[in-house]
Design brief:
The chain is α/β, with parallel strands linked by helices. It has 2 domains: 235 residues, Type I PLP-dependent aspartate aminotransferase-like (Major domain) (Aspartate Aminotransferase, domain 2); 98 residues, Alpha-Beta Complex (Aspartate Aminotransferase, domain 1). Helices cover 43% and strands 16% of the residues. The protein has a 7-stranded mixed β-sheet with strand order 2-10-9-8-7-3-4, with helices on both faces. Strands 11-14-13 form a 3-stranded antiparallel β-sheet, with helices on one face. Strand 13 and strand 14 form a beta hairpin. Helix 2 runs parallel beside helix 11 and helix 3 packs across helix 10. The longest helix has 22 residues. The two termini are 37 Å apart. The structure holds ligand TLP.
Length: 359
């Protein structure tokens, strides 16, 4: 039986339609702006996000890096929620390559604390403080378990930044999941960012690719920084052809992944409510709290793998499960049952004989 791969929605395989479109794609040298398929994708992405233009880059990490380079001069401070992907998982690109300082602000469910933002934001450089170069938000928020930022929160962050003439970037790697959960069109979310990055290669199943979108001026500048970091490609229409299908056909099915995540979370909660809370699962990510087993998440991954379930650790006692196109409801149920079996064994081992089950 093949493994049930819940490590990430990045594991999704391209669809047959994508493979066919890639084989047939009209291509040219994008270094000369001559790839018609890349251009079609960029125009389509901009239109779907309500922006003037977009630029294709190889990865979400590069989209965020290029955004930071584009919006800032060296030496400023970037404010972002402390658990954001840019801060936690992009290997310090913000400092190493963009020459920027970052400040992680406390947050709740991925939403930065508004008072902390008000306190931290500064319009310009002074002998005592760096000026704020950029404010970043992330929706859906990965480390917060796929949480969707409320639109009124995004509006408030945006308004505060604008009052200080500070640009805003949205890491919208999973913006279409957020739009699906909020039942709005993506521009309703994207409007709170001067730039928005999106990923084609997560739940949308394309093999490669991300886009950075924004005004014509921002994207023109971003093209230069994309070149600088080595992200300018040649016959990239091969990639873009799959990306077009990702945007045109795959965004509509993300609700299925959210429903599967609900199945998983409900079944886990039925086993033990400490494991997962379905009311906190808004999209396709389920965080499983294994603290009570007194066994670390990394060790859980080994046990799960032995039983044919692949997952990721997100913190010492948190296992992350991500649903996607290749996870059917039956897979979610089976994965939950495997976790249940392990859980019962571990809890029996972790809780001393005679101790109350609620210890
Ligand atoms: N997220 C990946 C891993 O890096 C953890 C995943 O499996 O979820 N922004 C957000 C919000 C992301 O979740 C990711 C990738 C990125 C940016 C980076 O995208 P890539 O991997 O294309 O560089």
């Amino acid at each position: 039986m093949p493994a049930i791969d819940l490590r990430s929605d990045t594991v999704t395989q391209p669809t047959d339609a994508m493979r066919e479109a890639m084989a047939r794609a009209a291509v040219g040298d994008d270094g000369y702006g001559e790839d018609p398929t890349v251009r079609r994708l960029e125009v389509l992405a901009a239109e779907r996000l309500g922006k003037e233009d977009a630029v294709l880059v190889p990865s979400g990490t590069m989209a965020n890096l290029v955004a930071q380079l584009t919006h800032t001069g060296r030496g400023g401070e970037v404010l972002l929620e402390a658990m954001s992907h840019i801060l936690r998982s992009e290997l310090g690109g913000v400092a190493n390559l963009a020459g920027l300082f970052h400040r992680g602000l406390p947050g709740h469910d991925g939403a930065m604390d508004i008072d902390a933002l008000r306190e931290a934001i500064r319009s310009g450089l002074s002998p005592k403080r760096l000026g704020t170069a950029l404010v970043c938000m992330e929706t859906t928020h990965n480390a917060a378990g796929g949480k969707v930022l409320p639109l009124d929160h995004m509006a408030e962050v945006h308004a505060i930044a604008k009052r200080h003439a500070v640009p805003v970037h949205i890491d919208g790697s999973r913006i279409f999941n957020a739009a699906t959960a909020l039942r709005v069109q993506a521009p309703e979310i994207a409007r709170y960012g001067d730039s928005v990055s999106i990923c084609l290669s997560k739940g949308l199943s394309a093999p490669v690719g991300s886009l950075l979108s924004g005004s014509k001026a921002i994207i023109e500048r971003a093209r230069a920084f994309r070149k600088m970091v080595g992200g300018s490609m040649r016959q990239a229409g091969i990639i873009a052809a799959a990306g077009i299908i990702a945007i045109e056909q795959m965004t509509q099915r993300l609700g299925d992944d959210h429903a599967t995540a609900q199945v998983l979370a409900r079944r886990l909660a039925a086993i033990d409510p400490v494991l997962a809370d379905p009311t906190r699962v808004q999209t396709n990510i389920v965080m499983v709290d294994v603290t009570r087993s007194k066994r670390r998440a990394e060790d859980w991954l080994v046990d799960l793998k032995d039983r044919g379930v692949l997952a990721n650790a997100f913190g010492p006692y948190v296992v992350r499960l991500v649903t996607h196109r290749h996870i059917a409801e039956a897979d979610a149920t089976r994965a939950a049952d495997i976790i249940a079996e392990l859980w019962r064994g571990r809890i029996a081992a972790a809780v001393p004989r005679g101790a109350a089950a609620s210890d």
